[in-house]
Amino acid sequence: MAGLGVALVAGAALIWAPSPAEPAPPPPTAAQAWPDAQKGTLPPDLPDGTAYDPGLFLDIRTSVGSAPTRDGKHIRLVIRGPGEAVRELRRLPLTQNPAFVSPSVAGDILVWAESTRAGLHLWTADLRAGRPARLLTGDIGDARLYQTQYDLVISPGRVNWVAAAPEAGTEIRSVALTGGPVAKRVVPGNWALTAWPWMVDGLADISGASRLRSLVTGEERAVPITRLSETACTPLWCRAVSLDDDGYPKIEVVRTDGGERRLVARETARTVISDVAVLGRFEVFARVTPASELTGRDELLVYDIETNRTVRVSPEAGNVRYRNGVLEWTTGNAESFLRHVLDLRSI
């Protein structure tokens, strides 16, 4: 009887033991969460067969990017429109080791930096008019370009950027969109531009951003510091990346006044773009999956701050980039890939 009692107790324990926690349901896909969002795909080559590398999308069908000439002697900056429409803006010989970098747009005005053996120069073009591109200035200083959408910031009538000061600190530089002399002023600290008219300090600090300052009013704001984290900020949100108690990465967003702290992701999550909480709403990140080691591509996700939910954009994505409200990524491999775009402004 004692053995039977033990068996009954053991059986009852099995019956009443809590079942293992069920895995969390997968996040909704972009098509499910945002059925009306504008999205599309882009072939990797121009109609003439040359490889095209977009630097900035105006919408899901129109972009600005670079491509070599068919003879391989020059690199071109072009506007690629719907269908086979291509307008050449600039052409530079490959012998000059050229690159078109940091494009920025406001309305119909496009600005960019050209890098050659002769140094950096700023150029501009009207996207609607057919007039040739114009040189703005070669007086760009020791420019600091951080691969964000704020490397060149267009303000009313001017384009702004930062450069390293000759001694210490940061030079705030700007030039009129019509050209002319470059305005310069030195401020102590390591500053970068963010959404106009703000700049953010602390880029050289191990913990990242520490304060914001308005270039118009001089107003200064301290930003919330998360212990043992790397922090990046815009005027609205900060992103803090740290390690949790188990040693896994943890991504959080918090308002610059310290309120509304949100956990975005943890464990195998990582940041994939420099920009923080784009459009004041979307934190873009990636998650390493079991297939990532084989494919070299991660799951691409977006945390929607407004709805407090995570959306899966692509199960496997590479070459993730963002500018001007448009998220871009590729699927496939180096030999055969397709470029995808999602206009976050349309959500």
From TrEMBL:
Can you tell which superkingdom this protein's organism belongs to? Bacteria
Please report the name of this protein according to its UniProt entry. Uncharacterized protein
| Disordered as annotated region, ranges | 20-48
Q: Where is the composition biased (Pro residues)?
A: 20-29
Ordered alphabetically, the record's keywords are: Signal
Task: Check the UniProt entry and state the signal peptide residues, or none.
Answer: 1-23
